[in-house]
Amino acid sequence: MSFSMYEASVPVFKQILNSLSAILDKAESHAADKKIDPQALLQARLYPDMFPFLRQVQVACDFAKGCAARLAGAEVPRYEDNEKSFADLKERIERTVAFIESLPHDAIEASEQRDIVTGSGASAREFKGQVYLVHYAMPHFYFHVTTAYALLRHNGVEVGKKDFIGSY
Q: What is the mean pLDDT of residues 94-109?
C-alpha cells in the first residue's frame, strides 16, 4: 500500500480548519451569551510566554498553507496577520482552505522525496517531503489548533472532541 501525500495533507488540513471555523462560531456565541468582551477570548493565553488564541489560529493557518504550498512546489502566500475578530479569523481560514484546494493534486502527490527547505540562514531546515509533512508540519499544525481549542475550552466555551475533529 502506498502513502498518499495528498490524502495525508490537504483533506486533513481542510477537515481540521473547517472544525476550527465552527469552533470560532461557538466562541463568538459564547462571548455574546455570557456578555464577555470577545477580546478576552481572542487574547487569552495559557501562559504569559505563549501566543494568544488569535495568534494560535493564525499560525495553524500558516502551517496548513505553507506545508501544502511547499509540497506542491508553489510559493507560500503571505498573510498580514492583521486579524482582530472572530470574523477576521474565519475569513483567514476560508482563504487558507481555498488556497490549499487550488494546489495541483498531482504536484502534492509527487512530493514524497521533494527537497523542502523552511526558514533561512542559520535557522534553515531541510527535509524530504514525507518527513517534512509527517514529522514537522503536521505536529506543528496540530499543536496550534489544539492550543486554540484548549484556550477556548479553558475559558468556558462548550466544545468537545467531536467539535475538534469535525466531519470528513
A: 98
Summarize pLDDT for 145-158 with one digit per residue, the tens: 999 999 999 999 99
- 10-165 is classed in which CATH architecture? Up-down Bundle (1.20)
Give residue 1's pLDDT band: very low, low, confident or very high (50, 70, 90).
low
**DSSP string spanning the chain?**
----TTTTTHHHHHHHHHHHHHHHHHHHHHHHHTT--HHHHHT--SSTTSPPHHHHHHHHHHHHHHHHHHHHT-PPPP------SHHHHHHHHHHHHHHHHHS-HHHHHTTTT-EEEES-GGG-EEEEHHHIIIIIIHHHHHHHHHHHHHHHHHTT----HHHHH---
